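Researcher: Next sequence.
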Amino acid sequence: MPTTSPLRCLVVDDDPLSIQIVNNCIENTAFLQAVGSCDSAVKAAEVLRHQSVDLLFLDVEMPLMSGIDLLKTLQNPPLVVLITSSKEYAVEAFEYDVVDYLIKPISYARFLKAAQKSLEIRTPRPEADSPNAAAGSIDYTFVKVDTKLVKVPFQEVRYVEALGDYVHIVVGQHKLIVYSTMKAVEEKFPAALFVRVHRSFIVNIRAVNAIEDNSIVIDTKHIPIGQTYLRDVLQRLNKF
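Model: Next structure:
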């Protein structure tokens, strides 16, 4: 399995204790590397203009400029995990395609879950070594729906949507509700045919009708393209 460099992390919070807690979590996570911290979003904006950062641990509530305000100013943001003492920003936060949303006080177990999500997004899948590459003739999979196994031809899948602990696999006009994760779908579905476009969506490249305003159109469904995935998506769709 190929090795990858640690994710370079910047912590942004106006509370010194919170910065210390997050930095301690980073130090105890082998695939993360702390590259600095800022006590304001204004300072963070300057750092991000001059320094390479893979993952931003960002407090929401800060004076002068909030974490949400900072996200609005970033053209090509790194992966972002928001940190706050309130749940009220959750809906707005995910409009900016953040990886996760941590509520203070932060436990290491919850921090690690968010960090692992970030690593999954950043780490490329080894396509050549995948089971589907080795068995190139396999053009279907079986998924468990309720108490039965249903055969799903890959060519007929339009897209996959994550919903909590389940995924919705849209096959033609039908929607299969499957207890699974997006990571499991990525590993099972052939990379030559499918691409992840958002933390909550995987699409069949051949089913894409158009791209409009950073959204993919499949039939009448508009699927958002997350900033984290945009470059890869445009390359995979053979855009010129």
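Model: The helical segments are 16-27, 41-50, 67-73, 90-94, 108-122, 131-134, 182-188, 230-236. Residues 127-136 have pLDDT under 50 and may be disordered.
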